[in-house]
Amino acid sequence: MVSTAISVVGLRKAYGEHRVLDGVDLEIPAGSVFSLLGPNGAGKTTTVKILSTLLKADEGRVTVAGHDLAADPDGVRGSIGVTGQFSAVDPFLNAEENLALMGRLWHLDKRVAKERCARLIEQFDLVEAARKPVLTYSGGMKRRLDLAMTLVGAPRVIFLDEPTTGLDPRVRRAMWDLLRDLVADGVTLFLTTQYLEEADQLADRIAVLNGGRLVAQGTPEQLKRQIPGGSIDLRFTSTAALATAAAALDGTPLTRDEDSMTLRVPSDGSAAAVQGVLARLDVSTVGELSLKTPDLDDVFLALTGQTPDTSKSEPAGTVGADTENGALV
Fold first, then answer.
1. Which residue intervals of the chain bear CATH 3.40.50.300?
2. Are 36 and 194 in contact (CB under 8 A)?
3. Side by side, which strands form the sheet with 262-266?
4. 90-107: b (≥16 Cβ within 10 Å) or e
């Protein structure tokens, strides 16, 4: 069993004088979710295209599922699945026919293909709609079918490029549950997304790409701790208690609000930091305590100087549009 699903060393790609990727290094464990974040034009899609054999790198050594990308691209292709941000299903076929078509493309034995497709239809909650044309499906159903089609070949690594674009929050969360189930079965997911909550919810590790270079890597919590802006917020029971607390914390940079009777003390949010602040106070005068920690939006802004672009227009077949046209829910 391959313990490392994807290994990337010194990956570079340029178009003329424009360097899209400039020395990218990645190590992604098998059976995990890795998320690559970055502003538009940072090189995320180029990275996915190279790792999935759709584009050649200029430099670098890459292995995917134990196969060397340069020496054995067919081995890589036989081990991966790719799901883009727009559905690739045939709208004039039904779910069974779309999945059967993928089985033939994978040259699967007919019995194996039939059993696998039936299991995927059940797993992705498409039983009732399995024989209805895809053009009657809602956006969420199309995305579920799209992901099911990716799994017909039983890939161990799946590249998900903006997989929930255009889906409403309810359907997006349902997709997250499906993705978690895949990881529980040992599949490795390589995720690009502009929805930072999605990365925060799903990813075991995150890398931030900016201008073709990786500017940070780590778990979501590790990245958040690198960014200043966390605080301990204390609300006191009286203005006198507020004044006493401010005096007790003299020398500590803080923000004082007389109207709300609160103090904001900069902090990394650790238990030791909270304990250190409370040890200097009369806790009986503290009415409320809350911790504010930077989120991935703060991380993204600090590392790239931009906010994530989630304003992309919805693709045809989104839940809202299909519902208005009488599509299946």
1. 4-225
2. no
3. 255-257, 262-266, 231-236, 286-292
4. eeeebbbbbbbbbbeeee
Sheet-wide strand order for 157-161:
80-83, 157-161, 188-192, 33-37, 205-210, 213-218
| Cβ contacts of 131 within 8 Å, gap of 6 or more | 94, 95, 96
**Position with higher pLDDT, 143 vs 289:** 289
Rounded average pLDDT over 6-15: 97
CB atoms within 10 A of CB 217: 17
- Mean pLDDT over all residues of the chain? 88
What is the pTM for the complete model shown? Answer: 0.78
Token pair, residue 177, equals: 């549950």
Q: Looking at the domain that runs over 231-293, which CATH code has it been given?
A: 3.30.70
pLDDT for 311: 53
Q: Which residues belong to CATH 3.30.70 in the chain?
A: 231-293
